[in-house]
Amino acid sequence: MALSTTKGTSSFSFTQRYRYDVFLSFKGEDTRNGFTSNLNGILCHNGINTFMDDRLQRGEKISAELLEAIESSKISIIIFSKNYASSTWCLDELVKILECKNNGQVVLPVFYKVDPSDVRNQKGNFGEALAKHEKKFKDHKEKVQRWRAALNEASNISGWHYKNDHPQFRFIKEIFEETLSAKLNHTQVFVVKYPVGIDSRIEEISCQLDIESKDVRMLVIHGLPGIGKTTIAKAIFNLIAYHFEGSSFLEDVREKSRTNDGILQLQKVLYSEILGGGNLKAHSVFKRINVIMEMLHHKRILLILDDVETLVQVENLLGKCDWFASGSRIIITTREENVLSSLQEDCHLTYYNYKVKELNKHESRELFYHHAFKKSKPTKDYLELEDQFLHHAKGLPLALKIIGADLYKRNIHYWKSTLEKYKIFPNPNILQVLKISYDGLDPTQRDIFLDIACLFKGFYKEVIVDILQSSYFYDPLCDIEKLIDKYLIVVEDGKLSMHDLIQQMGFEIVRQESELSKKPKKLLCYEDASEVLIGDTGLEEIRGISLCLPQPRNMQLNLEKMKGLKYLKIHNVICEDLKSLPNGLRLLDWSEFPLPFLPSTFEPTKLVVLKMRRSHIELDKHFERCRFETLKYMDFTYCENITKVPNLSVISPNIKRLNLQKCINLVEVHQSVGLLQELVTWNLSYCQNLRILPRNLKLKSLRRFDLPWCGSLMQRMERLALLSSIGYLISLDGLRINLQNVKDSSNISNLRNLRTLKLYDCESFPEAMNTSGCFPKLQYLGFFNSNISTLPEIARICPKLQTFNIHRCWNLREIPMLPPCIQAVHARGCNSLNSRSLLSQFGDVIGLPQNLACGYSNMGSSHQEFGSELGFASKWPSYNLALPGTTIPKWFNHQSDAHSILFSVGQNFSSFALCVALNVKLRKRNVPIHREKFACSIYLLINGFEERLARRKFSLDSLNFMWFHYTSVGHDLLKRIISSDRNDVTLRCKILNYHPKLGKVTIKRWGVHVACICPPRNSSIDEILKEAYLDEGLKFFLSRVAAEVLPFEREMVGRSETQNAYYCPLCEIAEDSVLHLFQCCPYAKGMWYGGRWGFRVEMIQAKSVKEFIEQILDPPKELLAERVTKDEFTLYAVMAMKILWDAREKALVSYSEASIYQLAHHLNTQYDSNLRSLGTTRGTEEQNRESAWTKPPDQLVKLNFNASCDQNNIGLAVVVRNQEGNGRAIRRAVSLCSKIANAIGK
């Protein structure tokens, strides 16, 4: 996963470390003791670190150590001599060197007393050598062809030809000088010790850089402070600098540009690094710019400017940026996204932006582990705290590094103490970096940032702009955009948010300012607000208060003296006698306001937001006397005391949003509300007693109108007038309305700009809507609690529809063809619906073949290509379908009643479809279906990674249904987790986020449709496994063992050459095989017997793996000890097999094997854990002692051991005595073959 530096060549990860400066490739008998030795001596004497393979034993096949040495070298020097091509070792070296050349390695050929044309055309000694190789490798002609191609390619590289016509020392000096120059030009900058997540981000950048393109490109890397911008830039520099005629990495441009001397020093470094030396003779900044431009404009260069704050800083180094040679690349890191955007137009270059994202949870955990634990593994106690630290850091590499390093080698008490401190005070080292962006703001921008951090996080951007405009007396949009550019705030779904550490920085700045001024904070949160509110000093300068208590509390608020108070947020405060509110308030957000009216002295002449959810407020004569001239947002959600909305054209004529949802006692809305010219959003949802609404709606600005589940008591004339008026709201893009007893809803069809339409209680599909292109922009269409039985062709009416929701439409029989852009269809509670057509459409949209079976038998290219086609058949990343019923279609090739499904996939795994059948039962009747929901989430676990792939919310009602979901696994995610040709996948389904007192949601069954490479499920063992008392993971493992598809033969990475790959990696005695591993290996025998039951595995009489598994799944009576059930035996045995398999896997890739005692202990522990999870109870301790399997109780013993051996024999003697001194001797004499004598002796 790295930037591909040459199209068609292999990729090279920047994380590779160079161990050597120079690798020397030579034929030993020709030059080892002469030319090569002299060259190596000169290089080493001058500080150049070389690799010369004179210490390695030569053979037919090049060693892994040598290949690693080539990859780890900056430069390779190839010394072609007369017998070079006679060595297959040398030729393999050459092929590898040229492969590394494509990834940035410098290659320097030396033709030592041979003609380059002989090398190029394979004549003379080279031709004779290759002819011999062709005879020897007649069955591997492609190998010889690679050698010929490599010789031809290498001979065309510029190098040196030594003809013995001048002194060798002078010749070697020329090679040394060129090598030294290449080394200096290849010098890398230090990146980081643990480069987690860097490669994937570089790959995202690679297409933007496209270093083979001839145009001039500028890439601006931007993002949060501490996000890793400099690290990524350094990694890119190390990776591609060699492609350019000159390169320079200038660090800390912002800081060094503060002084004239700093700018001059940056110019000097830029000039000398690209030209390889020399001094800038000009003395002024502007003269030096001209010299730089004149000297460098003909060179193809790579230039990286790190930490740039302003355009002027770039111009001081590069001038107008319009002079670069073709193919040059300029990379700039900055904290501001748009600071350099003008260069795109002014300089006529190709300009790209790249935003660095936070680390995901897997990368965060990996980086945190590196710093907090190094190589050790955390214990369970630390793991519980680890998640809290990761949540605190929120994927910011700087924070993970600093926090992790601080916790290294600390005890659990220190961890807990640090966590509590971080909740209040930010780490000063993190704060120092984050605060740089804040320090670059002007005073007003700083105040706005602190307002948002302390009070407005999570508010809609539009609302915040209106509030701040009233406070600062100008449109603050420019400053909001500045904060966004600096990544101090972000916009998510229209709301302003920020990283938690950025917000904590805001709190700390407010605290520090208060300490310096010796006055109360200007912005107060609930920790200190309650103390100040009941105080009497320093109240005039307080600008904002957020008093949101975790539990209700009685308080007497002293707000009279807070003349400067502009923002007031209160929650869970009970105040029985509120005497006054400051008249300068811009925001009054008081949930559960305890009084029926506002204080009589309150004159809200500047109020912008009035939010009083679940309060006792009444909009009576006390409210009507108020004049909210500046009020734009009014929210009275869940205010049960409101019965009438008064004349708002007088009270608040400039209102933009009016939220009255769930005001269940609201009866009348004044006619004037229908004439509010500025009203954009009006919500009357679930006002079930509403009778009177404005008959005349002239709301030219209205974009969203919600009135479902209300108006059933409305008079017929009122209803008709309302529907007639709705047709004139041509700006509407969202409408929810109840059509109970409405026969003519034709006016709705006039709303051509609608993007969301939800209709409730329809008797039939509105005839007026059944016209082609009636809703050309509609993306969401929903019918709820309706008697609709047939539907017209939706694709014709709504050509851009993406979501179609039909809920509790009991009589609906069929859904006709939907538009190709559809992404979700929900048809819950439609029990008359024929689901086949929808399932067919579901399969057609995403390309699901219904005859897909497990694909191990088709693991060839055709299967892989099919898997790829399946993955990219749909143009949508996901697709959802909810249908009545609980029967999973058979073409979902993996199904389960449990919460997990397991399967194996190859490299091309990219997508799958799933179906979850859900049973929903309510415990509490009359649950309001609009209030309660539950979530169904799907998690992917593969190669140690876990990722949530899908999540869907459904209303909690008594409807059983199936949720079909198609997902295309994220491309970036796959690159991180797909590691081999076979990857074991676990999907988990979880039901979350509902109160169990209201009901119970269970998974009846679920299935996955995937192009897998699992063994075919048609064996007799698979049939037995269906009934076996095992979890899905163990069933999956046993199924693969039975089908003999486990990856058994693997390269033993890192093991010595003396370890024969054909012998068991655990015992290193017998030939490696599955049956040996489970039954015959001494480790297996010891573990089986060392387990709780002392079972002798030799009792299983099996000549094949299949017979072994069959006896485990259906054990004969002689295998079952007294009071040991069949299920207990099977679980115990399969657990033993799995532990042995894991131990073998570990032994393949490490020098150490687990001891038999460790394996037995692991077996006992895992068995107990699985037994509990499966709900099985074992017999008592006394019962187990009576079992024929159970060993006697452990006793202290004395053991004397002696052994002797030679190359052919070994003698062992053991004397065991108990506590009484009684004992016995055990003697064994073993004749050994020479192949394994050393292993046994060891």
Description:
The protein is of the alpha/beta class. 35% of the residues lie in helices and 19% in strands. The chain is built from 41 helices and 40 strands. The strands form seven sheets. The chain has a 19-stranded mixed β-sheet, sandwiched between helices. A five-stranded parallel β-sheet has the order 2-1-3-4-5, sandwiched between helices. Helix 4 (88-101) packs across helix 7 (141-155), helix 16 packs parallel to helix 18 and helix 36 (1082-1090) packs across helix 39 (1156-1173). The relative contact order is 0.03. Mean pLDDT is 81; it is low at 1-15, 856-873, 1049-1061, 1176-1194 and 1233-1242.
Low-confidence stretches: 1-15, 856-873, 1049-1061, 1176-1194, 1233-1242
Subunit arrangement of the protein: single chain
Helix-strand category = alpha/beta
Strand content bin: 15-25%
Average of the residue pLDDT scores? 81
- The count of DSSP E runs of length 2 or more, i.e. the number of strands, is 40
Outline: globular
> What does the radius of gyration come to?
38 Å
Instruction: Determine the number of helices (DSSP H or I, runs of at least 4 residues).
Output: 41
Helix content bin: 25-40%
First and last CA, distance: 41 Å
SSE arrangement:
Elements: E1 20-25, H1 28-31, H2 35-45, E2 50-52, H3 64-71, E3 73-80, H4 88-101, E4 106-112, H5 116-121, H6 124-136, H7 141-155, E5 160-162, H8 168-185, H9 198-209, E6 217-222, H10 229-240, E7 246-250, H11 253-256, H12 260-275, H13 285-296, E8 301-308, H14 311-318, E9 329-334, H15 343-346, E10 350-355, H16 361-372, H17 380-393, H18 397-407, H19 412-422, H20 428-439, H21 443-456, H22 461-472, H23 477-485, E11 490-492, E12 495-497, H24 500-517, E13 523-524, H25 526-533, E14 544-554, E15 567-574, E16 587-590, E17 609-611, H26 621-624, E18 633-635, E19 644-645, H27 648-651, E20 657-659, E21 668-669, E22 681-683, E23 704-707, H28 716-726, E24 734-738, E25 756-760, E26 780-784, H29 794-797, E27 803-807, E28 824-826, H30 835-846, H31 861-871, E29 878-884, E30 894-896, E31 900-905, E32 911-922, E33 933-942, E34 945-955, E35 961-968, H32 971-977, E36 983-992, E37 999-1009, H33 1020-1027, H34 1032-1043, H35 1074-1080, H36 1082-1090, H37 1105-1113, H38 1126-1148, H39 1156-1173, H40 1181-1186, E38 1198-1205, E39 1209-1217, E40 1223-1231, ...
Helix pairs in contact: 2-8, 3-4, 4-7, 12-13, 16-18, 17-19, 21-23, 21-24, 33-34, 35-36, 36-39, 38-39
